[in-house]
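Subgroup meeting minutes
Present: P.N., E.W., G.H.
Scribe: E.W.

1. P.N. recapped why we're keeping a running log of single-chain structure predictions: easier to compare across weeks, and new members can see raw inputs and outputs side by side.
2. G.H. added today's entry (300 aa).
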Amino acid sequence: MDVVTGAFSFTGRFIARRLMTQERQIKTLTNHPQRPGTEDITAEVAPLQFADRDALVESLRGADVLYNTYWVRFQHGRVRFGQAVANTRTLVGAARDAGVRKVVHISVSNPREDSPLDYYAGKARAERAVRESGLAWAIVRPTLIFGDGDILINNIAWLLRRLPIFGIPGRGDYRVQPVAGEDVAEIATWAAEQTDNVTIDAAGPDIVYYSEMVESIAIAVGRHPRFVYMSPRTSLRAAKLIGRLVNDVMLNEPELEGLMQELLVSTERPRGTKRLDNWLLTNADTVGMKYASELDRHWR
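Output recorded in log:
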């Protein structure tokens, strides 16, 4: 049996589907057990309860591998990145006490504990908690994940379908390296089979400028509003205004800074094989048809 935190979430769903093709028994720890669109996932369900460590240990007992996708995209309410790091430490400690053989931890490309961006600094601290857990471990660092259930690319398409103009922060000349969710899952299950501890990037085959990625999305959805190049500050103001209209956090400053600093680009050879352009054309009829709300998905 393998345990996946958040098997009904975006990244966790790809891992769960991959494990199902390998005929692995799956258990998921989640606080969203009835999320729409996950009916194809067959898994035993238990709550992800960091406050009850004994119950957490029991929910992990008998597992071979723990695939941990738990994190928070931004600080919200009482949940801060420091709390997410502490929760990760609790989770991997419970996995050790439950006799789990290995943890495969999903992180992000280019984390750094001294990063001025709390998201990336927190991710690096969570990695350290995994390395110090006493378990065998693998750390997988995805770049920009795309696929069914995506938020960022979907919502860019949603805006392109509806607005007469589309704002691009800065000059759009910063690079991203999209990777398919299926490729991330394949790399994660490969990492679980390695006898040595490994830290590895999960990155796709193409590195493109942000403006090129937006152009590809526009071509796929058949809508090409006028592109307007905005200062980062103006872009954040526009995102905040749209966020109020849709009652969501569309984009925040640390995310934009990480994007413009090219932190979603790997320095390793790409292990992913699927191209964003192909996925966009295959899913052109559905991507961006509905807005994908981060607050609805994880907080409400």
